[in-house]
Amino acid sequence: MSFLWPTSPAESQPTEEPRVLHSLALRSVTVHGEQVIKSGPDLYGHEASNLKYIAANTTIPVPRVHKVEQGGDGKTKKIYMDYMPGKPLNKAWPEMTEDQKQSVASDLRNYVEQLRNLKGTYIGAANRGQAVIGKFVAHGGGPFDNESQFNQFLFSRILPKVPDTFRYHATKTFKTNHEIVFTHSDLAPRNILVDGGQVTAILDWEFAGWYPEYWEYVKAYSDFNAVPKWLDNVDMFLPRRYTEEIIAMAYLNHFSH
């Protein structure tokens, strides 16, 4: 899920009648005056921690978090964030010039390099939050102290649905010696805001955190139909690597829904 957020956040409690930006199942994103509120009974509360960490350790443009509300069960119910200017890349793409596309790819390359320069010692969200896998069905677990534990988590959620004849080959692809780096986990065009040839924001850090170095590639390549020739541009900020992992995860994800 990705959203547009207002530019000048109000520090006080919003009082205006809310305007709905997005609503899906029990989740919603609404504008209240100059604030945006993401709300729902099943939010991943680590999104706020991820955003704060990225804001403090990179120059990546992200929404500033103002407040997080929790229910009596301790789960995150609402996150108050900035509005960020720009248009989702998947909507802006048809009208962009080749120079603008190249410029956006250059911005993304810079931001991805910053993420991959952040090295971790566990697998999970910021502040030792849970790792989350899946796209249409999300599963949380951990945090995990090493990649072997993470792999076992992957297999426990997916392998029961994989035909027996393919289990052996599917599991052998996953190694345990990848570097752990900070990862957005959903660098799809819908989560990238642009203005002309400039990236103005990267949104939706709900599934972000410390993951094996191939994880960003797996997630970015999973949305290859988003815009025409998107993969050619992905190659500019995520140069081709981890082919085995991408193919293996694409296969396993087929059985994970």
UniProtKB/TrEMBL annotation:
Gene Ontology MF term list: kinase activity
Domain Aminoglycoside phosphotransferase: 47-231
Listed Pfam families: APH
Record's keyword annotation contains Ligase: no
Keywords, ordered alphabetically: Kinase, Transferase
Keyword Hydrolase set for record: no
InterPro entries given in the database record: AGP_Transferase, Aminoglycoside_PTrfase, Kinase-like_dom_sf
Protein name: Kinase-like domain-containing protein
Species for this entry: Aspergillus avenaceus
